[in-house]
Write a structure and sequence with these properties.
The chain is 76% helix and 0% strand. It is mainly alpha-helical.
Length: 78
Amino acid sequence: MNLFDAVPQIVREELEGVNLNELTHFEYLKYITQIELRVWENINITSNPFNRSQVALMIQNATNLLKENPEDYDDLLG
């Protein structure tokens, strides 16, 4: 799976039914860690520092969009 398909799909799967506004910071970080592990299991790019930071940024952006505007997130997934 490519990175641009993996991140939105995995974020949606992991956060389905989760109210992001009710999570503690620690709970949120646990979800982010799980998402990041799943993304790296499903993509085929080198795990160098630059790529790791880009994947982390994509995950952060996806979770922020899902939290702030879930309708736009659904449109992103198609």
